[in-house]
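Meet my pick.
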Amino acid sequence: MMRASEFARDRVIREANQAFKAPEPQTPTTDYAKAQRSFQENRERLKAQRLAREANAGMNRP
């Protein structure tokens, strides 16, 4: 029968193996995918800026 310390040791070993596991090899990103990701990030940034401006303008109204 396994004792609690053995269970804890096994759990720690499993967690360490997961933490230090080699990352999955990523497929090379195409130029199209890079452009799409850049476009999405830029659009999100601009939307956040616009919403902040609109919220700030709403606060300044009497």
